[in-house]
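Structure record:
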Amino acid sequence: MSDAPPGLGLLPGADAYHVPVLADAVRTLLAGATHVVDGTLGGGGHAALLLAAGHRVTAVDRDPAARAAAAERLDAALAAGRLRIVAATYDDIDAIVPAGAPVDGVLLDLGVSSRQLDDVGRGFSFRPGAPLDARMDPSADAPTAADLLNRADEDDLLTWFRDLGDEPQARRLAREVVRRRASRPFVTSDDFVGAIRAVRGPRSGPADFARLFQALRMVVNDEAGGLARALARWRDRLAPGGVLVVISYHSGEDRLVKHALRDWSIACTCPPRQPTCTCGGRAAGQVLTRKAVVAEPGEAGTNPRARSARLRAWRKAAA
């Protein structure tokens, strides 16, 4: 397969609210699949695309609002039995697909949907006055972004800001958060933006806020842990010849995917100094994307979410 997708073209199921990212690459890579799991339903754009291409789809989302909106949008496919929508996280494979049920295509489009970002009350954005929430499932009994900022120790904050937020002044920001919460708890986006500005100065702006709010969201929803678990589980559940496609928007997530797919494609996995091969010497599959697929200029210009998207794909070995 080419390392870059063809032109964007017309996208079945695309609407003004959610244009599926890297649609042509997704369509091409999963063309041979019969049953595709869309592990991140979101706005439903990819599910609509897959259904239009003739696939049977099981779509997954932990966000009840996303499930409800997609069910309304894709009601014809639901009624026809070509679409199932499951309330789960994409690493909870047993809840998504019964044991033994064949799956020959999996799509994981990571991150958040435009609908979630645009709903200020959900607390995903740094817009003024937004609550510090960021839970994918707002009914979940789980810490919010405010809870993390108000309770986490300085070392944990440092790790999150540095490793997930790519923040060069992570230690100073962690200390500033601890200092501020001693006199007043973090409640809204303005509180965290104020801490960021205090450390990075008046020239800090949306790009700084976006990556640090994203880091909080990733911790709130255990996104890195969920991705690591999901990759190995879907590798094992895929039918022989099945394809796994992952679209990431964060350098750490993309690196995790890249390394996992590469490791699965190595024929011998024995320790380097072991004198003889005992692993069987057969790769689990092959990488389909020599390097990450990225959006062409036309797509990146019309769909801002596509600018940071990185797609990688892998095919499981035939039986």
Observations:
- The two ends are 22 Å apart (CA to CA).
- Residues 1-17 have pLDDT under 50 and may be disordered.
- The chain has 14 helices and seven strands.
- Residues 206-220 form the longest helix (15 residues).
